TrEMBL record:
<keyword id="KW-0808">Transferase</keyword>
<dbReference type="GO" id="GO:0004623">
    <property type="term" value="F:phospholipase A2 activity"/>
</dbReference>
<dbReference type="GO" id="GO:0070292">
    <property type="term" value="P:N-acylphosphatidylethanolamine metabolic process"/>
</dbReference>
<comment type="similarity">
    <text>Belongs to the H-rev107 family.</text>
</comment>
<protein>
    <submittedName>
        <fullName>Uncharacterized protein LOC110195292 isoform X2</fullName>
    </submittedName>
</protein>
<dbReference type="InterPro" id="IPR051496">
    <property type="entry name" value="H-rev107_PLA/AT"/>
</dbReference>
<dbReference type="GO" id="GO:0008970">
    <property type="term" value="F:phospholipase A1 activity"/>
</dbReference>
<dbReference type="Pfam" id="PF04970">
    <property type="entry name" value="LRAT"/>
</dbReference>
<dbReference type="InterPro" id="IPR007053">
    <property type="entry name" value="LRAT_dom"/>
</dbReference>
<feature type="domain" description="LRAT">
    <location>
        <begin position="86"/>
        <end position="310"/>
    </location>
</feature>
<keyword id="KW-0378">Hydrolase</keyword>
<dbReference type="GO" id="GO:0005737">
    <property type="term" value="C:cytoplasm"/>
</dbReference>
<dbReference type="GO" id="GO:0016410">
    <property type="term" value="F:N-acyltransferase activity"/>
</dbReference>
<keyword id="KW-0443">Lipid metabolism</keyword>
């Protein structure tokens, strides 16, 4: 298995090989937990044999991994979820969501006011409009609140394999995302990917071309299964800028990633494209089929240069169409 600087490999080796020439001591003292019996500790370890050969985020460290083996899940936790499960935590007036990644750890979106709290991925500066993806102990995140495993969309969508869900969650730790995604939106993407799509997953900042009947609709992919696009006009020449799930907007149509203008119009950095897109969500803008349509909007976000080949090509065909029409009328 290839090495990665942020990953650790779960291995089983002879004690003498692990220790080498170093000294060892037994350490059973941890007042924070109720120790399992020796037989239950062994059973817990045997369950973890299936982890041998897997890679885990190194920031979990041995402490998280071994404490979970030795002590089990803290008494405040109702029952241990399975890796990849979505957890609904019941706060006073709302539900808070997280994805369980094993060893009493969850990955979740910390709201802006929680950026300063301790946890993996807590070093970035806080912004009022962003959430920070953090990994913390389930017992810490849940606190005294009750929670339940709630994979409520499993009947509608096929979840990804648990190890893939966990790996996807690990990759997000430490990232800042636009807070309007909300927790459940973000975690649903981690568990299911882009529902209903067997195509290659786009990258943030990619232009998406959706093939409608007779024309193409364009959008910008902003991550977590979402796109931002210029929707059809609501009244006269005014159109809304909307954020939608890619699979919802595509419907039964096909789509493709099409960054066809990159050779002539170098794209902006993906993070800047995404931030520009998020800031425009919900606004109403003038719509003009010839000068400010959905393709103009998407290309302007990606490179700063508005382009629309389908309009240009249509205008070039007008003279020949007019000639054909005149011939038919003769």
């Amino acid at each position: 298995m290839s090495a990665a600087k942020d990953k650790a490999l779960v291995k089983m080796e002879l004690l003498s090989m692990v220790i080498g020439t170093d000294k060892q001591q037994t350490n059973k003292n941890d007042d924070r937990y109720q120790l399992l019996s020796d037989s239950k500790t062994v059973q817990q370890a045997l369950k973890t044999l299936k982890e041998v050969g897997n890679e885990v985020l190194y920031k979990l460290m041995e402490d998280y991994f071994l404490n979970c083996l030795r002590n089990g899940i803290p008494s405040g936790i109702q029952r241990e979820p399975k890796p990849g499960d979505l957890l609904e935590i019941f706060r006073t007036n709302y539900s808070y969501w997280a994805v369980y990644v094993g060893y009493d750890c969850v990955v979740h979106l910390a709201p802006p006011h929680q950026h300063v709290s301790v946890g993996v991925g807590s070093q970035k500066s806080a912004r009022k409009d962003t959430a920070l993806v953090k990994m913390e102990r389930l017992s810490v995140v849940a606190g005294n609140d009750k929670y339940q495993v709630n994979n409520k969309h499993d009947d509608e969508y096929q979840p990804l394999p648990p190890n893939k869900i966990v790996q996807r969650a690990f990759k997000e730790v430490g990232n800042e995302v636009f807070y309007k995604l909300i927790q459940e939106y973000f975690l649903t993407y981690l568990r299911y990917g882009i529902p209903g799509s067997n195509q290659q997953e786009p990258k943030p900042g990619d232009l998406i071309e959706i093939f409608r009947r007779g024309y193409s609709h364009w959008a910008v992919y902003v991550g977590y299964g979402c796109v931002v696009h210029l929707a059809p006009p609501l009244i006269a020449d005014i159109a809304p800028l909307k954020r939608e799930l890619l699979y919802v907007m595509v419907g039964s149509n096909r789509y493709q990633v099409n960054n066809k203008y990159d050779a002539s119009d170098p794209p902006l950095p993906p993070s800047r494209i995404v931030r520009r897109a998020w800031k425009l969500v919900g606004k109403m803008v003038p719509y003009n089929l010839l000068h400010n349509n959905c393709e103009h909007f998407a290309t302007r976000l990606r490179s700063g240069v508005p382009r629309s080949d389908q309009i240009t090509n249509a205008l070039l065909k007008l003279p020949s169409l007019a000639v054909n029409l005149m011939e038919l009328m003769q």
